[in-house]
Amino acid sequence: MLVLSLAGTILLGLDSYRFHTVPEHRLVQRMTVIVVPMLQSAAAIVIALMLQANRSRRG
To answer: Which residues contact 5 (CB under 8 A, 6 or more apart)?
Structure first.
């Protein structure tokens, strides 16, 4: 989870930096701000479900 959070923060930071420093970057639809949080949420849900399934199997 820590790696996923760190990677998402780095991607959003790079995208924000480009947004403020490259004028052409502001004219394009930026998917990073939408996709990164969605992927992080999906991965967190999958990991939580896997942990819950493992816990219920143990008893």
So the answer is: 40
- Helices marked H in 1-59: 2-21, 32-58
Question: Which residue carries 């999958």 as its tokens?
Answer: 46
Instruction: Give the mean model confidence (pLDDT) for residues 17-22.
Output: 86
- Report the amino acid identity of residue 42: A
Output the pTM of the full model: 0.66
pLDDT digits (tens, 9 = 90+) for 23-44: 887 888 788 888 888 888 899 9
The span from the CA of 59 to the CA of 56, in Å, is 5
| Residue 5 to residues 16, 25, 36, Cα–Cα distance (Å) | 16, 24, 10
Cα 34 from Cα 56, distance rounded (Å) = 33
